[in-house]
Amino acid sequence: DARAWLTDQFKILGLLVSTDDAGNLIGTLNSKKHTDKIVMIGSHIDTVPSGGRYDGIAGVVASLCVIKHIKDNNINLPFNLAVYDYLGEELNDWGISCIGTRGMIGALSDEILSRSNSSGNILKDEINKIGGNTKSLSKPLPMIQNILACLELHIEQGKILEQKNIEIGIVRSIPSISRFNVEVNGQAGHSGTILMHQRADALVVSSEIITYVNKLALKLSKESNQHFVSTIGKINVYPNAAAIIPGKVEMTIDLRASSKSSRQQYITELEKQIEDINKTSSCRIEINETAYAPYVEMDKELVKLFKKSADASGLSSQIMDSGAGHDTAQLSRVAPASMIFIPCKDGLSHCPEEHAEILDISKGTAVLFNMLENLADSNQ
Ligand code: GLV
Ligand code: MN
Ligand code: MN
Description:
The protein is of the alpha/beta class. The chain has helices at 2-12, 57-72, 99-104, 110-113, 123-129, 160-164, 202-223, 260-280, 300-312, 327-331, 358-378; strands spanning 16-19, 25-29, 38-43, 80-85, 147-155, 168-174, 176-185, 189-190, 228-238, 244-245, 248-257, 284-293, 296-297, 317-321, 337-342. The strands form three sheets. Strands 1, 2, 3, 4, 5, 6, 13, 14 and 15 form a nine-stranded mixed β-sheet that branches. It has a four-stranded antiparallel β-sheet with strand order 9-11-7-12, covered by helices on one side. It is elongated, with a radius of gyration of 23 Å. The model has no long low-confidence stretch (mean pLDDT 97). The structure holds glyoxylic acid (GLV) and manganese (II) ion (2 copies).
């Protein structure tokens, strides 16, 4: 439904609507100059379960506003301007995030594309159903060569801008993100008859891992002066009934780190802990990495140009590191890319309380437009 809505908005603005092979929904304003060069603006319209209304969506709506402004004022740009709704940015049931941008850069492996979700739907079939063509995703899409810049506006999802009363964050880096699937196998049984010392309770063993992950991340975040966080936010208990000892637990570890060595230390210590628990408990634990995105730095020239754009818009700004993952991180692996943050209330995101003031979104939108003018000046 959201894609249908966005398609209508693209049409109202007179954009050329298309879906690329990775399933991204695109509205393009072609330059009168007949060029292949592209500047991409946009973000994502999907959201997390029980999420907010601004994460991703603010960036897409801001991009629509930029297009409207360009059209209303008959501004000619020396490059084609494409508004992207990147497909499936949030972590989903296939255990992967940033589907559309990973697809664009040739980072969706056959293994990932062949995964089934909990309803038994295969990822590649779903991408193809909405207009993608997964057969051509084994290498970067040819259009990548024509990208001049990938720009994204996003809510900060943290408290730095709000607390410092700064209007625009200019992103310098995005941390590595890993997701691990942990499966704990015990033995289901009757909660009234199996005595305490006879049990292989998968949930009890899982609770040890949850506590360990939290302590380990706390330790490493203190030791490294770079961004380091880890969370277990998803857990399925089987069969999840009050009178049955839990026989199996599946959970997902989410790890974000800017330092390679801290990330490696975390993985080594966690694997050692799991090995120890496997030796001493009656449950079997297996751990697998299901997704990885490396630490990336944004294009230095674009960061400078964003700073210049914020200054020209008369807005306060700060260069900062992202805590969250973004499609721009994937794109920055193959093309010049950078993004800006705007403040959001109490730094809350991925929850229904998520909120950004329209005034703050419009300030970011002004910077985005200014950035396009600066890019136009340097690419005449
Ligand atoms: C994206 O929302 C992320 O999980 O960082
Ligand atoms: Mn998100
Ligand atoms: Mn987002």
